[in-house]
Design goal:
globular, mainly alpha
Length: 509
Amino acid sequence: MSDHSSESDEGKPSETTNFTRTAENQAEETKGLRNLRRTKSVTLAEHITQAEKRARQSQPDRPIHVPRDSLFSWSSGFEHYEGFVNWGILILLIGGLRLFLENVIKYGVKINPLSWLLWLKDQQENDYYYHTPLFLALAHVHVFISFYIEKQLAKDRIRPPLQYYLLVGHLIIIILIPMIVLGIWPHQFSLLGRTVVCVVYTVLFLKLWSYAHVNHWCRLARSSSLSRRRSFTFSKAKQNGQEVNHEEESRTSPGVSLVQYPDNLTLPDLYYFLAAPTLCYELNFPRSQRIRKRFLLRRMLEVVVISNIILAMFQQWMIPSVKNSFQAFSDLDFIRCTERLLKLAIPNHIVWLSWFYLLFHSFLNTMAELLYFADRDFYQDWWNASDVGTFWRLWNLPVHKWALRHVFIPISKHRYSRSVASMAVFLISAALHEYVVSVPLHMYKVGVFLGMMVQVPLVYISSFAHKTFGKRVGNMMVWTSLILGQPLGIMVYYHDYVVKNFDPNMLGL
């Protein structure tokens, strides 16, 4: 009996064990409550329970305090900072006005719209030169050549691989001709004339690339369509003695009239594309119904007014600042170079912002309105970009769409990685930027090219900063690169240009 009773006592928990477990549970509950109170005191305000809030409000002391964070805290959710925006604008205006008055007192009034006509002639002669408009008129020859090649390709009179050699060779000739002509006769064109020539030929190069590429896609689609239907469609059409355009029936909807390849191969169509505010060719561009006269007049007025403002800021503000930086860069005085850089950063950035609005909003909208061009997506909110890569995708959409459509996607379809395709886009962009700067200045350096390629690591660095420290830090990095990067490049190129072409002592530098 004693053995059985001892076994039964062992199978049941003793009173001592129950007491110990109860004490442990109470200790854990007490610790949990203490941790909960400590958590409430240090965590966000919204973590306080609703039960405690109702209990406090039921007290007779008429409480007025509620859990909430200060407005400047990230957790407050406050987003209305319009007053600070207005304050910032006023501070910038006051600071800009002070700098303008200081500039006028130091240098006098240098604004003279007529003086810009001197940029149309060579500085060593007194006669005006008309070589720049004549050279630009010769660009029509390339237009006719491109049109003729496409007509012959549409009739299958040029077979591969000769067609690829012709198209690529013609594009290379377009980009090389300004380098050859401006290199052989450098004094027949002014600096402004050389710049205009290089910009126009660069735009022509990009547009004719898109024109050839799109027509190539259309020929491939036509060939594949004809090969699929040849066994049935054409035999049946011949039996009935009828000509059936099945391609047009399959690609157009009832009541919709769209231009089909090769009906798009006309000179008016090509010249419309060359004048349109886009770099990407299409057979059927979206068209607006009418010209908005008030909208057009406002944009045209902005083009005139902002152009003169930019020229005035160049004369009064930027040119003196750039000239004063020459000696500092010659002496490699880091402190003075930094001071000159910061002083030039403000007017340069204001000019850049004004130029952006002038080109991408006023001018391109003017052209689009005159041509009934309905796609006005020329830029997105690049000012909110959280990294450098997002900025490059948003600020210049005509170039971005061209690069995405004709470089990035074709390379990606050939089983290359996105990194390789992105690197190809940056290489082409860097080469064209260097082309537009170096050829007019007759300084074949790699400064602009390297400046563009530096954007590649900046993309990864700013993206890392965005993910690690937040969107604001990434956005500040974007603005810093815009504000400080351009003035540094301007001062370096100006120094090298003066050293190469002038005697600094004769210019009083």
